[in-house]
Design the sequence.
């Protein structure tokens, strides 16, 4: 996402320190990509950020797990003893 | 007895030690930022006599459950909304005294309250190891088969239990 067109007030700065080796490799990649350092870094960081947020806040289930989950949603509605016990412990330890 | 409340800048996040560096560090560096960034919230257990000292915490956020292949039946094809209990930890000083269980139930209770209002039916929790998995199963979560460290609970269970108690 090009930042040069953004008004100054809408821009944020990120400063990072890297080793000489890392910097050399990044500069090579920038030459290959034909992007500016800023655009390349922004794009790379955004991609990693999206990926991380996606894996942290979404869960993808296989067919077998999907069917298991659907059963939980349909039929698993009775509190078991372990849950009842947890409610008791909560009552004893927590001031409402 | 503990009070469970939303983490604020007034709490002392540095004294907390659950024995897991990552979870300690999360509380110090990221928990408040997550709240500010709208990524979820952290609730902490304190004692009324030491209102800044954290003895345990949990995080709660929204999540989405997707399927590799959509179900054929009555369910919609878009992701199912769920409430994710992300992290749960207690201080080493008070481990094995029930605070972890109390925090878990507190998270479920909170989830059930929100769920009622916005129509969410599922709570998700991710176990860090086999022992944690067994604890969650004991409390009524169901582990998945292919991804056994992911567990879910139908919130109707919690609502039912809470309504029995009046």
Sequence:
């Amino acid at each position: 996402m090009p930042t040069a067109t953004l008004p100054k007030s809408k821009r944020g700065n990120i400063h990072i320190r890297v080793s000489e080796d890392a910097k050399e490799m990044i500069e090579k990649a920038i030459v290959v990509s034909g992007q500016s350092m800023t655009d390349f870094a922004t794009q790379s960081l955004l991609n990693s950020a999206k990926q991380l947020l996606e894996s942290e806040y979404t869960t993808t289930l296989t067919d077998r797990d999907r069917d298991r989950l659907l059963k939980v949603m349909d039929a698993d509605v009775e509190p078991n003893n372990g849950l009842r016990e947890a409610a008791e412990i909560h009552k004893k330890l927590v001031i409402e | 007895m503990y009070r469970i409340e939303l983490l604020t800048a007034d709490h002392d996040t540095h004294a907390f030690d659950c024995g897991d560096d990552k979870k300690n560090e999360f509380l110090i560096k990221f928990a408040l930022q997550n709240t500010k960034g709208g990524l979820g919230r952290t609730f902490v257990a304190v004692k009324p006599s030491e209102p800044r000292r954290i003895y345990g915490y949990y995080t709660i956020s929204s999540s989405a459950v997707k399927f590799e292949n959509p179900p054929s039946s009555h369910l919609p094809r878009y992701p199912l909304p769920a409430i994710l209990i992300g992290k749960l930890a207690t201080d080493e000083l008070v481990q094995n005294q029930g605070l972890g269980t109390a925090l878990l139930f507190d998270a479920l209770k909170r989830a059930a309250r929100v769920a009622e209002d916005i129509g969410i039916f599922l709570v998700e929790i991710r176990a860090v190891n086999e022992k944690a998995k067994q604890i969650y199963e004991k409390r009524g979560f169901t582990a998945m088969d292919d991804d056994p460290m992911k567990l879910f609970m139908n919130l109707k269970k919690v609502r039912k239990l809470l309504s029995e108690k009046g």
Remarks:
- The first strand of chain A starts at residue 58 and ends at 61.
- The first helix of chain A runs from residue 20 to 33.
- Residues 83 and 89 of chain A are 10 Å apart (CA to CA).
